[in-house]
Amino acid sequence: MVYPSHGSGTIESIENKTVLDSECEYLEVSLKASDMKVMIPVDEAETVGLRKVVDEESIRKCFRLLSADTTDMSSNWNRRFRANTEKIKTGDIFEVAEVVRNLTVRDQQRGLATSERKMLDETREILCSEVALSLGVDLEEAEEMINEALSDAAVRAEAEGN
């Protein structure tokens, strides 16, 4: 499963818990990238954006997106940060990949503000965890695959002077 803003993981169990005199069924999800476990109420799973890990073909499309040209971003870091935050919150792997690609290229060309650097690092972890689970590889191999796809976008952006 993928938990937006946290990455992918595996449902370890479904448990009934009593919280504030109310019994509720919870999913216990073990997140791959952070070794963290989260409890999500079953009734809230769709609301928080919990979804299945994408298939291998979607990962291939994601790699093509990572190696494509960057999209326009605001020159104002605050607007850019808010727009990227909204994309990450969707939980959509293609939106997450676009944020990773655009921030990676911007970092190589102009550098990033501290908050954007943190966003890039966290978003890369989210993407790596889904690639790893989808393709059945470890996190290091997933990161290498992502880096390879990103290198194409960076080389093209440098050649174009963007």
What report would you give on this structure?
With 162 residues, this protein is of the alpha+beta class. It has one domain (2-160): Methane Monooxygenase Hydroxylase, Chain G, domain 1 (Up-down Bundle). Helix content is 54%, strand content 19%. It has 5 helices and 4 strands. It has helices at residues 56-66, 77-90, 93-110, 114-135, 139-160; strands spanning 2-3, 7-19, 22-31, 37-41. It has a 4-stranded antiparallel beta sheet with strand order 1-2-3-4. A hairpin with a 3-residue loop joins β1 and β2 (7-19). The longest helix is centred in the C-terminal third of the chain and has 22 residues, at 114-135. The protein is globular and about 60 Å long.
Quick summary:
The protein has five helices and four strands; from the N terminus they run ββββααααα.
Primary descriptors:
alpha+beta; Methane Monooxygenase Hydroxylase, Chain G, domain 1; four-stranded antiparallel beta sheet; 5 helices
Any idea what the shape is?
A: globular
What is the count of DSSP helices, taking H or I runs of 4+ residues? 5
Residue-averaged pLDDT, rounded?
A: 89
Order of helices and strands: EEEEHHHHH
Count the domains: 1
Let me know the CATH homologous superfamily.
Answer: CarD-like, C-terminal domain
The helicity comes to: 40-55%
Q: What's the CATH topology label?
A: Methane Monooxygenase Hydroxylase, Chain G, domain 1
Distance between the termini: 36 Å
Low-pLDDT residue spans: none
**CATH top-level class:** Mainly Alpha
Structural class comes to alpha+beta
Output the strand order for the largest sheet.
1-2-3-4
The portion of residues forming beta strands comes to 15-25%
CATH architecture: Up-down Bundle
What Rg, in angstroms, do the CA atoms define?
17 Å
Using DSSP, what is the number of strands? 4
